[in-house]
Structures are given as C-alpha cells and as structure tokens.
Write a structure and sequence with these properties.
The protein is α+β, with helices and mostly antiparallel strands. About 45% of the residues lie in helices and about 15% in strands. It folds into two domains: about 80 residues, Phosphorylase Kinase, domain 1, CATH 3.30.200; about 180 residues, Aminoglycoside 3'-phosphotransferase, Chain: A, domain 2 (Alpha-Beta Complex), CATH 3.90.1200. Strands 1, 2, 3, 4, 5 and 6 form a six-stranded antiparallel beta sheet that branches.
C-alpha cells in the first residue's frame, strides 16, 4: 500500500481528508501530543494535525487569532483537527545555531517574538492560560527537592508578583518552532497559548536547540546580551526568567520520570550569571 493510500485509510486522518479535500503528500508521523500528515489542498502544501489534547486545541485557537501574522496560517480548524500551511523553506534555525550563526538565529527568534506579541484589534482567545497557572508544577517540586528548584521558585515568584508588558505569549518560542516559510519568512508554530509577561518567551531560546549548544562556554552570557538588545529586555530580568523556566522545565521532566539534568545544568549557569 502506498503512503497516500495508507494515510487515507487511517481512521485518524480519513474524515478530515474527505471534509477538507486533502491529498496525502508524505508519511504520517507523531509528535508528543498528536498525529500529523503532510497534505496538499488544491495543490498547496499543508500539514494536517489531529490531537485531542487541550493544549493543542488551545494553541490552534491562538494561531487562528494570529491570522498568519508571525505564525503559520490556519487553513481550517474544527474539533481536534488543525490544517496549517506547511513550511517548505530549506533554512533551519537549529542548524544556524550549531553552525556559527547563533547570534543571527537568536535575532530571528526575537523578531518572531515581536510579531507574535504585537497587539491585535480583536480580543485574544479566552482559553489562554495565565503564567501563574502554568508554573504550578514548580512550587511542590521546589519544596520537595530544593537546590536549583528552590532558586527557580524564588525567581518565578518575584517575576510573577511584578509582571511587566503583559500580553499573549507563545510559550515555546525556540529553534524548532520558528520555521522557514520561504517568501513568507520565519513563522511560528506550536504555541502553548499563554498570557503573561512577554519576557517569558525568551528563556526558551537560551535553552535550545540542544544542551551542547546552549551550555557551551560563554554561550548563555552571549545570548543574554543579544536578546536583551534585540528584544528590549533588561539583562538581569532575562536571567531571572531563565532560572525560573529552567526549574519549571526540569520539574516537568522529573514528573515524567526522566532525568532533568539538561535543564538543571543550564539553570545553574544562569543562576551563576545572576549571582555574579
């Protein structure tokens, strides 16, 4: 059976292929939260994503609100299905970061954040999750384990109690979630759908695309310098957000039964910079 025939017979995709007149254009694959299939609609490249996760549905609503400005266009959305324009450009921010163009990749990500954070005429979706709620996993983890988790909780508490420039936040703005859309430029995908201080988006840049890149000697300090200039965030506050997010990320990893050493390692570098 061909890939297209297999996808067409897949009960996850079949209803949407028929409803939206889609032709399979590659092998289906899975993400952490759903099933995806490259498709074409009237000849145009698109991606069909099917997920019943609340986070994915909330993210789809936010992408629809962005209306293609800074994010991939939503071509159709219904229930647990989302149809997006597909990135077909050859460039990769992760490859740039690993290949000597980290400053440029960082500035591209900051510019993407600027577009996403810009105010819109319409009210944002009512389903956005406040950062206070988003950080919920950190507090019990810090109490149980101390160490960097405690430092992260203290930083997060101070930031959340004194929010600045509050608005819509992508929530996972990193090298794998800002893609090359050719003539349309660099556009975001896979938002978490949050509301809070915009500066929360920037620690995700610092901790990606992998720990070897992010924790290379001098890399975090350089990224803080570039982001503070490109995104207009005070360096000390950015370091506080990095420490806060590192602990949150590690607490999620720990709750999944995995070793959180990567996030903790980067968090310790940020904490040392903050102390210095």
């Amino acid at each position: 059976m061909s890939a297209g025939a297999a996808a067409a017979s897949d009960s996850v995709f079949a209803p949407w292929l028929a409803r939206w007149a889609l032709a399979p254009d590659g092998e289906p694959f899975s993400s952490l939260a759903g099933r995806l299939l490259p498709v074409r609609q009237a000849g145009a490249a698109a991606i069909l994503k099917v997920s019943g996760e609340h986070e994915e549905i909330r993210g789809g609503a936010l992408m629809e609100w962005w209306a293609g400005d800074g994010a991939a266009r939503v071509l159709a959305r219904e229930g647990d299905a989302l149809l997006l324009e597909r990135a077909t450009g050859a460039r990769s921010l992760a490859a740039m970061a690993r290949g000597g163009e980290d400053d440029e990749a960082t500035r591209i990500l900051c510019a993407a954040g600027d577009r996403l954070h810009a105010p819109r005429a319409a009210a944002p979706p009512a389903t956005l999750v406040p950062l206070e709620t988003w950080f919920g996993q950190l507090w019990p983890t810090a109490e149980a384990h101390g160490g960097l988790y405690a430092k992260s909780a203290a930083a997060a508490r101070a930031l959340l109690d004194d929010p600045r420039e509050v608005g819509v936040v992508h929530g996972d703005l990193h090298h794998g979630n800002v893609l090359d859309f050719g003539a349309r430029g660099w556009l975001a995908i896979d938002p978490k759908g949050l509301i809070g201080e915009r500066s929360y988006d920037y620690p995700h840049i610092v901790m990606n695309p992998d720990v070897e890149t992010a924790a290379a000697p001098g890399r975090l300090a350089r990224r803080v310098q570039v982001i503070s200039q490109a995104a207009r965030v005070e360096p000390r506050r950015l370091l506080q957000w990095i420490v806060a997010y590192a602990g949150l990320s590690a607490s999620w990893t720990l709750s999944d039964g995995r070793d959180p050493w990567r996030a903790l390692a980067i968090g310790e570098i940020a904490a040392a910079e903050l102390g210095a």
